[in-house]
DNA sequence: CAGAAAGACTTAAACGTTTAAACTTTTTAC
DNA sequence: GTAAAAAGTTTAAACGTTTAAGTCTTTCTG
């Protein structure tokens, strides 16, 4: 299929001709570089406006080598965790004059790799990346362009993530403060570092100040494994600490079906504060990840790197907050 | 701050020099255009691989005028409706070789306008746009680049949206089939065309086959207005038809607090099938919008336009499906 | 075996900017 | 009133590609 010619946009040359000056002068005026007399400035600006001039960013980029764009590679937009992150990255980038190419890697390392390759061809000056797996699929690009990893620490990369360990400890503090002494844990997959850290932060803070009645591992989904469901049936703990909000909501649902009352019979607490945590019945107590700050910091750090900041690899972790809601009650 | 020089990437010239041919030949080889002897082809390809050549897409774009990129402007990524749409647009675009600039307009027409302006400077070949308001804030750009509006019909634009009217009618069919004769409506804001259409599709299909006990308007949020809550307190209808899932979930919560059982005492049905509809207790019956199809079609149509398809303005609406879940029951 | 056609490759222009360097005019300094 | 400095403007090269046109060589065709 042949592409039809759109209205050819006016160029610097067009303005130059119209205003009776050279293209260079027009460029100097429009960019505020160089010194140009007031009269010519006005003439140029007026004709630029008159013809509806818009700079051709692509042409500029070939000359300057700066595209003022970055890439954002996420594993799965339909996971409610990521849109807020994407929003923050995009808005911080925009404020710095950068545009964002969005890629949903669909959770595969191949797509991650191919997309990064494509993005670099397109001249992005940096990439914010949330890896789909623990595999370093962008290794080969590290020399080409700065890459900031977000949410999931990966060795050798600048990383911005929530302090999952401290978050777990916060949950422990809260649970202890409410007088719970019999605790159950439905942890996330311990193959994932964030799940491990959350659990560890919790368990270590609990120490011997309470008993962990039982513990089980469950995928980060609202659907519970048979093992988890079995544990719930026999549960005698007064609080169930979950690896994330999906699990927690699944647990709440299961408990509901088992006829247990939340929080009278048993408390539940999650992790992430996804949108629906506040809307469940009762509201789900949880740990809020600073998603917006995460995105902002990732953008900011990436742009510092782009600007040439050569500091050693940064590993930034951001504090989390416990959000107390109806699902969490004092032990009786 | 001074930008440090990243490793200068090898260019066509570098390969040409290395392989002892002209840059043109290298281009011909790598693009598969032109005719080049097998020997030279191999030599060129080998050196290209050896030096780790990647085409400079920006330079190519200045010459060809094609950036192979599109823009996607959405009002609010944190609304769970949009990520799935974004995902579909991006993935369809990628399959066609296009990359996607994502912009969250934060619901303001100024950001919409400014972003579109910026995107066009950046040479996007088209824009998929979900308008934040009913205001045509991109009017001035219509001549510059094809624009496809998604989800919210706007005159003079190619539009892809769900068939809200038909969806409303489907709800009516379902409700009638289950024998309900006393109906309540919590419609969305009737200033919004999609809310209007849903309501109208429903009401017209109901006709005189059932009574509409009461009706109220509520914002598209889970928080219910005082008026809505008052109506719910006195409700005697056997089914409550809601303008979207947020409203429906709010209604379910309110009914729960009023001690009404769903669906034994009263059924509830929503619209959109957001992620949480299936996870509420009971599951929320609703109408599924084909978000993925919506995004795919939008991408596809936009790319057709980019390719020069000059057909008159298209107004495509996609069929919806009723999803029956626990919140909807036969009338007793 | 001559002429034409095809094949292989190079040259050079073009895309729309930016920017260093050159040139011209005006201002400043003494 | 002249030399030097500053201000204003133009020229031309450069960014890394693509591609039309040109050149040279080989292969066909009759």
Structure description:
With 332 residues, chain A is α/β, with parallel strands linked by helices. Chain A folds into 3 domains: 12-55, 434 Repressor (Amino-terminal Domain) (Orthogonal Bundle), CATH 1.10.260.40; 69-162 and 291-318, Rossmann fold; 164-289, Rossmann fold (3-Layer(aba) Sandwich), CATH 3.40.50. Helix content of chain A is 40%, strand content 16%. In chain A, strands 2-1-3-4-5-11 form a 6-stranded parallel sheet, with helices on both faces. A 4-stranded parallel sheet of chain A has the order 7-6-8-9, sandwiched between helices. A two-stranded antiparallel ribbon of chain A has the order 10-12. Chains A and B meet through helix 4, helix 5, strand 2, helix 6 and helix 10 of A and helix 4, helix 5, strand 2, helix 6 and helix 10 of B. The structure holds a DNA duplex (30 and 30 nucleotides).
Describe what is shown at a glance:
The structure is a homodimer of 332-residue chains. With 332 residues, the first copy, chain A, is an alpha/beta fold. Chain A has helices spanning 12-19, 23-31, 38-51, 57-64, 81-95, 109-121, 164-177, 193-206, 226-233, 245-257, 291-306, and strands at 69-74, 99-104, 127-129, 147-150, 158-162, 182-187, 211-217, 239-242, 267-269, 286-288, 315-318, 321-323.
